[in-house]
Amino acid sequence: MRGKICVITGANRGLGKAAALELARQGATVLLVCRDRARGEAARSEIQEATKNATVGLLLGDLSSQQSVRDLAAAFLRRYNRLDVLINSAAVYKSKRIETADGLETMFATNHLGPFLFTNLLLDALKAAAPSRVINVTAPSTTKLNFDDLQGKRHFRAAHAFGASKACNLLFTYDLADRLAPAGVTVNAFFPGLVKSGLMREAAPPVRALLSAFASPPEKAARALLYLASSPEIERASGRFFKGTTQSKSSDYTRTPAIQQRLWEASAALAHLT
What is the value of pTM for the model shown? Predict the structure, then answer.
């Protein structure tokens, strides 16, 4: 990975941080995207010290805020004109409906719309580095979207909203893979399994107990993520869903082009993306 430029969102803890560490060990230029400067600097320093890689950097950005995402993309593009690997790893789980400054439900905004906008703003840099890779960290969601109430204003259930945001990740992955096929940019979805992290700290006690009992350390999942980011064996694989390093199949719903297109159009409108 020497000479490769990699961006990882949600990189100050958990899977994102572990993946950043693995990529830095391989010699990549790794840019950590974090919301909090102090935590981001701490993660950057820790990774630099562990890997002796001086090219680990920090970008500040909040994926729940469209202005922050635009500022984040602009900050990257001021320094770099190419991007070899983009890993959309940041995610949140909220037990109650909370609106962002843009008037959007927080899980939808952070888990889907933020990565959607960020990735689109970096498309020219990804194309310039082709063959380049986009990896969306998600889950095998079977939740169906209510396009008449995407923000859960009329009816909100936390588990459903989170599942819907993960279904959005899958729909976006497959649609973007088709759009970028001629450009040589691959786009794949990755399910790390149950991973120890603070993501589900607002979930119901039984869910937290399950994670505590069966979740694996993030370092294990990070090795699988490194494989997707670097292995020549899957250099041309795109529009796939991986559970670890094994190709799997998500629900027929997420593979439906008409639904993918409908989500793309709705997301472009909400993100004011032409």
Answer: 0.93
